[in-house]
Design a protein that fits this description.
Blueprint (H helix, E strand, L loop, with lengths): L5 H8 L3 H10 L27 H19 L2 H8 L3 H19 L3 H6 L8 H42 L1 H16 L6 H16 L16 E2 L15 E6 L2 H13 L5 E6 L9 E5 L2 E4 L8 E5 L2 E5 L3 E5 L5 E3 L28 E3 L2 E3 L3 E11 L2 E8 L9 H7 L6 H18 L1 H14 L3 H13 L5 H12 L1
Helix pairs in contact: 3-5, 7-8, 13-14, 14-15
């Protein structure tokens, strides 16, 4: 058997530079991965590829690897190092190209081990793109749900307006009862429900069959000073407007003081600004299904709670109600079903005794009697709507903490008047400047200052300062 020497093999594979270069250029027409070697398009065609799936991502990673390879590979240096051996050329090109590709598209396990190393890779970007697409899809679905809910709300409002609230509530209760009493569609579905019900009842804890306690965050509003309608006409009323967040925070602070009873009126304020009914249980809040509708909800707050997600909730009586947990949607028609053969009720048991609480939403007005003394009745009204005097929370806090000392009360009143004047300070100064600058003569300027002082717009100190400026 004849064998070929190593030097003879080298001589057969070795070519001159021109042939070496042509062989390099012809690699693009060879098998994969060489077919992707020159896939990078310097004319910008690659920008059309959106790597939003694995196939496109691999293709884009190949293009990035191609760009990097073309920018770094030196054919002349390769020829010298390989001494014109085209087999060595192919080995080098394949090894370098795959290494560059793996920088952009590492194996999943490698990406998980070294996320920082590949944070700017094409494959990591695919994860980000997928996350962004998922978020965008969820955002769109959320917007679709919101629009659907808004349409249903508008349709319900029109329906309520046409037939009246009492008739609407009656029909809603009638429809709910019919739906919950409908029963099984067929034996297969009925069996599925019976098996589900049996498994739920066997659990140590089931949201549908286990008893729940009311949450400890529900607290009594233990105020002692009630709003007295008989004294409203003879009382001094101070009206303040606060933004929604400030309103709820201030109302919560007043309730926590356990000193004042609050008479609250909430009127529906349009879509997503309507008081909703909840019960707060130890396992979390539950929305009251099919709650009675009412344009205006009012009463004296007897209970309240501050929930991290729902915000401030209030109850207008301390009477507890019994509740059942609604079955999942596809089993809701068994809520009031009675088996036709055995007479057994499929209805869920009462799983809690709790108070109905309303979220504090809508156009809201709260009245608090802050002083109820002979000859001195002071009522504070806080609103989140309308045209009334705005007040910082600090001033409201001072009002709801009156002092018994006559001297201190007078000092507080003077200080409050001074603070209120400060609110219009910029306007007053602007008025002074405008009057002084636009007056034609010294006499007219002095007359203007005197009018401002006589009308109470200027304090003695401000009047003297303005007059001194005029004289100089």
């Amino acid at each position: 058997m004849l064998t070929q020497s190593r030097s003879t093999q080298f001589q057969m594979d070795a070519v001159d530079f021109e042939e070496y270069k042509k062989h390099y250029e012809r690699l693009a027409y060879d098998h994969f991965p060489f077919s992707r070697l020159f896939s990078w398009d310097e004319n910008g065609e690659n920008e059309k590829i959106n790597p939003d799936n694995r196939k496109h991502t691999v293709k884009y990673a190949m293009m990035i690897a191609s760009e990097k390879f073309q920018s770094m590979f030196n054919i002349e240096k390769s020829f010298r190092e390989n001494k014109g051996d085209i087999h060595h050329l192919e080995d080098d090109v394949e090894r370098i190209f795959w290494a560059l590709f793996r920088q952009e598209f590492p194996p999943e396990a490698e990406l998980a081990r070294n996320p920082e190393k590949y944070k700017s890779s094409v494959r990591q970007n695919l994860h980000k793109i997928r996350e962004d697409l998922a978020k965008e899809k969820e955002k769109q679905q959320e917007e679709d749900r919101r629009r659907g809910a808004e349409k249903r709300y508008d349709k319900e409002q029109e329906y309520r307006k046409n037939i009246g609230e009492d008739e609407f509530n009656r029909r809603m209760e009638q429809e709910k009862h019919a739906k919950h009493s409908k029963g099984p569609k067929n034996d297969r579905e009925y069996l599925e429900f019976i098996q589900w019900r049996k498994s739920e009842m066997a659990k140590a804890y089931s949201p549908y069959f286990s008893f729940h306690d009311q949450s400890e965050i529900v607290r009594p509003a233990s105020g002692r000073i009630h709003v007295n309608p008989m004294n409203m006409n003879s009382s001094k009323t101070r009206v303040f407007k606060l933004e929604n967040n400030d309103f709820n925070e201030m109302l919560h602070e007043i309730l926590k003081m356990d000193k004042y009873k609050v008479a609250l009126t909430m009127e529906e304020g349009g879509f997503s600004n309507v008081p909703m009914q909840y019960v707060l249980l130890d396992k979390g809040p539950k929305k009251v299904s099919g709650a009675q509708r009412s344009k205006i909800i009012e009463g004296t707050i007897e209970l309240y709670a501050k929930h991290p997600d729902l915000g401030l909730l209030v109850a207008f009586n301390d009477k507890k109600n019994s509740f059942t947990m609604s079955y999942p949607g596809h089993f809701s028609h068994y809520m009031k079903h009675i088996d036709s053969y055995t007479g057994e009720s499929m209805a869920p048991p009462f799983i809690c005794h709790a108070n109905i609480l309303y979220t504090v939403r809508g156009n809201i007005s709260a009245q608090i009697m802050i002083r109820d003394l002979p000859g001195e009745n002071v009522t504070m009204t806080i609103r989140n709507f309308g045209q009334c005097n705005s007040s910082p929370l600090g001033i409201v806090s001072q009002i709801i903490n009156p002092t018994s000392s006559i001297e201190q009360r007078l000092k507080d009143s003077i200080q409050m008047r001074h603070d209120n004047n400060k609110i219009d300070g910029i306007k007053i100064q602007s008025m002074i400047q405008k009057k002084v600058q636009n007056s034609a003569t010294f006499v007219e300027q002095l007359q203007d200052l005197t009018k401002l002082f006589d009308s109470g717009h200027l304090s003695p100190e401000e009047y003297n300062a303005a007059k001194a400026k005029l004289l100089h």
